[in-house]
Amino acid sequence: MKFECDKASLAEAISGVSRAVTTRSSVPALEGILFRAEGNTLTLTGYDLEMGITTKIDARIKDEGSVVLSARLIGDMIRRLPSERVEIECSETLITTVKGGITEYNITGLSASDYPELPASAFQRGSEENKNGVLPAVEMDACTLKQMIETTIYAVSQDDKKPANNGEKFVLEENSLTLVALDGFRLAVCTRPVKAERGVSIVIPAKTLNEVARLIDDAEQTIAISASKRYVVFSLGGYTIISRLLEDAFLDYKKTINPEHLTRVVVDVREFSSSIERASLIITERLKNPLRITFDENLTVRCQTELGKVMDSIPCEFEGQRMEVGFNNRYLLDALRNSGSDKVAIELNGPLSPVKVLPVEGEDFIFLVMPVRFKND
To answer: How far is CA 211 from CA 16, 30, 53, 132, in A?
Structure first.
């Protein structure tokens, strides 16, 4: 194998696919990137057996072939080369020469035959798995998907006890797409209009969605999404991201959202966040007392720990019954910060019922935050 290409394009491609490369594996090839030179194209692949990322760049191919190179090593080498063009040559013994200007490296690669095959081949071959797939390709604005992911990903569980909660539910209906994340203490739901031929409900690992969001820039572009019973594929701007789906049962989130409320306030997000941050100064890892928030004509935030006590108050638009509710300060702050709004509505049904955080108008998102029971209640 021998090819020459643009250094910047190669460095960007290596950085992109490296997100799917594992740092430690009993299979050495999985710590590397698969380079495949064919025709006028260089294809790079990273894969950790759960998620794979591939991309293609233009290259002047002198000899076709393939090799697996250490992701960390080749990435560092390419970034440090002094020239704008790079030449890589791999011998039959897998000794690989990397040249750029006056600099030359020699490293040992691994055989491409040691690299596991990606599940994407099932889609490319039109196998039975693809024919019986649950979702034909659907296209949507990439920035919209990125915003949906960033709005909800904070509520994904970090606990492995319930695997489905380590991902987000992806619910595609005829005219909308909904992403749902939850961890037992909070829930985030974000919905946007999308045209689809057929509905589907799958659970996608949070790691995959994070990497998809990172690969989306601010430029106008579309992203194509397709899935089978076990895998989902995202195609975006030269990148293809393939991921295994989570198969554990996901909570029926709609049953947790009460459409009624006894109390509703509209509050400025920045003011409320600042008030919570001020009250949180006396909360530590050891001293984790909840915030005591009174919903009335003003929002009053109180907290008391061994370090001291604090009381703060901000204005709000109030309707309904006066109510006092306990909150985990971080969970409430996360909901406010991820709303992306200047103002939010907060709806309550009682001191121990899930609290809804909503846009003042529209239904772009719904956040639930579980209240905290006071010790003296």
So the answer is: 9, 18, 9, 27
| Inter-residue contact 290 to 327 (CB < 8 Å) | yes
Q: Residue 5 corresponds to which tokens in the numbers above?
A: 């290409």
Q: What is the pLDDT of residues 290-347, one digit of tens each?
A: 999 999 999 999 999 889 999 999 999 999 999 999 999 999 999 999 999 999 999 9
β-pair partners for 79: none
Residue pair 15/23 in contact (Cβ under 8 Å)? The answer is no
User: Which residue has 């191919």 as its token pair?
Assistant: 61
The candidate with the shortest Cα–Cα distance to 171, out of 148, 143, 146, is 148
Pair 345, 295: CB distance under 8 Å: no
Burial class (CB in 10 A: 0-12, 13-18, 19+), 121: exposed
Residue (of 47, 36, 203, 33) closest to 119 by Cα position:
47
**Nearest 10 degrees: CA dihedral of 162, 164, 165, 168?**
180
Q: Give this prediction's pTM.
A: 0.89
83 neighbors 57 (Cβ within 8 angstroms):
no
Torsion of the alpha carbons at 334, 336, 341 and 343, rounded to the nearest 10: 180
CB 140 within 8 A of CB 194: yes
